[in-house]
């Protein structure tokens, strides 16, 4: 039996045995979270059996490039076990952090926290993916900073809308530049997702008083100014007074980079 046939069989088994209503994801493989800090995309297999990913492909867009496709054979030999995750490292550090590298799957749009759209496709019974075939579209996510619309990604996003994976092409998950995590929290087994189905976790970088995502001399300077002028920004323990404890908390946050990345 050819691998593609096994894959198709696995998928059709998943279809018939796990899901019974039209509202549920017919494939049962979802992009459940994206750890922005580590550039890790997590696929989860909700099925009761493994899914062989031979022939599966991603298509990605960012603010300036649209419809970047991974290789037809990129996923060959990779299986995602039942009720298990597969980590895809968009920053290609799988040798350190585990999972598989995006670069091993083929071309990806460069990851941007400011705008990124990603759609997952499964092959037909001949092992082929037609990106304009809505029946082969499995899951879609799109996020941007402050949910800003990025028209360059529209062709890909419209594809996801046509496939019943996303509500409207210009609705983006409301990410932030220094967000930590995007997580699918609502309607996990639904095929159609909206930005409201995802939780965003933002870590507050304690010593980053200039709010630029980095800690450096300018933050020390901003702290000293705020402290001298007894501004709320320098009241690190929020007790209404400015004293040694605030200096201590700031210095500790600064040296440990608490909440920053
Ligand atoms: Ca990583
Ligand atoms: Ca700063
Ligand atoms: Ca204080």
Q: Can you lay out the helices and strands and say which pair or pack?
A:
Blueprint: H1 3-18, E1 29-35, E2 40-45, E3 51-52, E4 57-62, E5 68-69, E6 79-80, E7 85-89, H2 94-97, E8 100-101, H3 102-105, E9 115-121, E10 137-145, H4 154-162, E11 173-175, E12 179-184, E13 198-202, H5 217-228, H6 244-256
Parallel strand pairs: 7-8, 10-11
Antiparallel strand pairs: 1-2, 1-12, 2-7, 3-6, 4-5, 4-9, 9-10, 12-13
One calcium ion binds at residues 208, 210, 212, 214-215, 218-219.
Q: What features would you describe in this structure?
A:
This protein has 261 residues and is α+β, with helices and mostly antiparallel strands. It has two domains: 6-202, Lamin Tail domain (Immunoglobulin-like), CATH 2.60.40; 204-261. The protein contains six helices and 13 strands. The protein has helices at 3-18, 94-97, 102-105, 154-162, 217-228, 244-256, and strands spanning 29-35, 40-45, 51-52, 57-62, 68-69, 79-80, 85-89, 100-101, 115-121, 137-145, 173-175, 179-184, 198-202. A six-stranded mixed β-sheet has the order 8-7-2-1-12-13. Strands 5-4-9-10-11 form a five-stranded mixed β-sheet, covered by helices on one side. It has a two-stranded antiparallel sheet with strand order 3-6. A hairpin with a 5-residue loop joins strand 4 (57-62) and strand 5. The model is unreliable at 1-26 (pLDDT under 50). One calcium ion (CA) binds at residues 208, 210, 212, 214-215, 218-219.
